Amino acid sequence: MSRVPLQFLPTFVAVARAPSLRAAADQLHLTHSAISQQIRLLEEQLGFALFERSARRLLLTGAGASFLRTVEPALAQIQAGARVAAELSQGTAYHLRLTLLPSFAQRWLLPRMARWRQEHPDIALDLHTSLQVADLKREGFHAALRQGTGPWRGLEGTRLVQSPLIVVAAPLFAERLLGRPLSALLDEPLLGDSENWERWFAQAGHPCRVHPVASFNDMGLMLQAAEQGMGVTLGRQLMAADALRAGRLVQLFETEMVEDTRSALWLLHPPELVDWPPLQALRAWLESEFALTAALQTDRVHRDP
């Protein structure tokens, strides 16, 4: 076998992963004929077929699938190394691109960014908020903060914290509800998902049907609506922590709903970045800040029984 033509490997990976030749051509900004020529030259150099030809796409052979499992992580590692080297060539500063939910960025991360800058002035965070799950490698992100269970194919991660759902509302609701039976909640405007509320009531020993007055696709907006007196909601304890400590929200009942793995927050990243210093720094800082948030929450509960 002759030397592998490295310049054709990105084309090979794109064609192998794309749903069609058209999609691969759009991704690579190449014509169909150019892609076909590159794949043919690669196969000639390797000495074996990578694809079976069909009318609309190229299908991996067994040898092609085996080759892909080696080539894809190697290319990802080269790309990651190039990004790190480029940052080092520009000085000592690092640039870390992080994708996360808007609600988590607004309610928890941004109020703590001053401490991050004070502790890590040489690592600039580029925050990208979206309700859509980003493809880290394709879109050039170093890491993601995600809630739930996955699966997160091709990524490694650290489970950072688990945040249960708790019942919170503005102080005016607390004045009416604190000390009253659980059933009194049903006379108040409830915010959020009916299924979550019914599961919470069942866990608290009062199964019932619930009809919320409003639902939201963003936890941050829902907590903001509760702060403004729109109603009572089930909010993530972590996301409500600052508002609880400041008195903008009050926890009305002790029952917490833990959703097993669905309530866990993960820091995810491509495997080749596991030892990258900025990512290690972010992971350690997040773990420290979550511990501090939990300690302040415990202190608040003890002070306000």
Task: List the SSEs and their pairings.
Layout: H1 9-17, H2 21-28, H3 32-46, E1 51-53, E2 58-60, H4 62-89, E3 94-100, H5 102-109, H6 113-119, E4 123-129, H7 136-139, E5 143-147, E6 156-162, E7 165-169, H8 171-177, E8 190-191, H9 194-203, H10 219-227, E9 232-236, H11 237-246, E10 250-251, E11 264-269, H12 277-303
Parallel strand pairs: 3-4, 3-5, 8-9
Antiparallel strand pairs: 1-2, 5-11, 6-11, 7-9, 7-10
Helix pairs in contact: 1-2, 1-3, 1-4, 5-11, 11-12
Describe the structure.
A 5-stranded mixed sheet has the order 4-3-5-11-6, with helices on both faces. It is an alpha/beta fold and 305 residues long. The protein is built from 12 helices and 11 strands.
Jot down its keywords.
47% helix; 11 strands; 4-stranded mixed beta sheet; alpha/beta; 305 residues; 12 helices; 5-stranded mixed beta sheet
Main sheet specs: 5 strands, mixed
Mean pLDDT: 87
How far do the termini sit from each other?
Answer: 75 Å
Task: Report low-confidence residues grouped into runs of 5 or more.
Answer: none
Structural class computed from helices and strand pairing: alpha/beta
Task: Report strand %.
Answer: 15-25%
The helix tally amounts to 12
Strand order of the largest sheet: 4-3-5-11-6
Total beta strand runs: 11
Fraction of residues in helices?
Answer: 40-55%
Radius of gyration, rounded?
25 Å
Overall, the morphology is elongated
Order of helices and strands: HHHEEHEHHEHEEEHEHHEHEEH
